[in-house]
Amino acid sequence: MIWDELEVGLAQLASDGLLRRRRTLDAPCGPAALVDGQQVVAFCSNDYLGLANHPAIVAAVRAAAEHWGVGSGASHVVSGHLRPHDALEERLATFVGRERALYFTTGYMANLAIVPTLVERNDAIFADRLNHASLIDAALLARAQHVRFPHGDMAVLAERLAQSRARRKLILTDAVFSMDGDLALLPELLALAERFDAWLVVDDAHGFGVLGPQGRGSIAHCNLPPSPRLILMGTLGKAAGVSGAFVAGDRRVIDWLMQRARPYIFTTASSPLLAAALLVSIDLIERGDDRRAHLRQLIDRLRSGLAGLPWRLLPSLTAIQPLLIGENAAAVQLSERLFARGLWAPAIRPPTVPIGTARLRISLSAAHADAQIDALVAALRDCAADGPF
Known about the structure:
By secondary structure, this protein is of the alpha/beta class. It has two domains: 18-49 and 289-386, Aspartate Aminotransferase, domain 1, CATH 3.90.1150.10; 55-286, Aspartate Aminotransferase, domain 2 (3-Layer(aba) Sandwich), CATH 3.40.640.10. It contains 15 helices and 14 strands. The strands form three sheets. Strands 3-9-8-7-6-4-5 form a seven-stranded mixed β-sheet, sandwiched between helices. The chain has a four-stranded antiparallel β-sheet with strand order 10-11-14-13. A three-stranded mixed β-sheet has the order 1-2-12. It is globular, with a radius of gyration of 21 Å.
């Protein structure tokens, strides 16, 4: 029976230490979390600047709900494109220095829109092996040749681009890799895109708002020159603290996506109150140098405090600080020990990360305090001393 097969599959996941468990929160997003009646300090949110509960954003939502209501009522290309959506797209394009921007409901949808709309059969996609699942799915949906290269290996990528006889080529990469926290070699990738006449699609989910002057993202951080072949995707539910995503680039690219991208055309537009909230959020990001400076100080504090532990902290200078444990059961056990001490750092296991590299994904926020970082460091040091792992 098909139900029996599901039961066997679930039992196998549990046996392998891969069964996912949801925790239900009874408090807003922030470092102070209430989970199953227990107060914990959360190190698992992507709210990198601590904007998810900012009073100015909350006030913008209230005002927008009074003026615009809640729902948009239709897709953007029918009657769901309201003035806040239009204002947000203009603001985002200006903020990231691109000609135009298109607002999407989620980053996953944005990636599923970009890739299959630009390439198809007889084309080729060249993708970093550690790309996010949405980029992998986008490549599969495009039905183009999917050529993967070792993480960050520009020599192999150049070789595979040179060998390709595809009609069109597209290089696909995260900017900040979500499970390792490292930054893609964006200048080298753009140089290869120029050399081999390829698109370069950059998913800046974890860099937007955090990296670059005024939080303009990884492309600004790397000081990349303007290029019509570079297409930027940024999410708005992480550092921006709200919801949604955007694609920004050359006017012709954005116009083509609006005409042909199925995840954009055939879905109801997001609530206008979210767009109104994001207009305030972008202003806060732009003026958020103090928040970014505090976040960098917290990253340094954590890395210094965890030096010398038996687990390896991956070389990340971003808000994503992965502590490599190894085996699935050991990572889950360590996470549970921390949770019992009031510290929430989730265990990440395959297939999200490669087999044998289970880890704690410690996510820092400008909303964290020094004392909370010190508490996590002390608890990890105690766990290391207690063992075994």
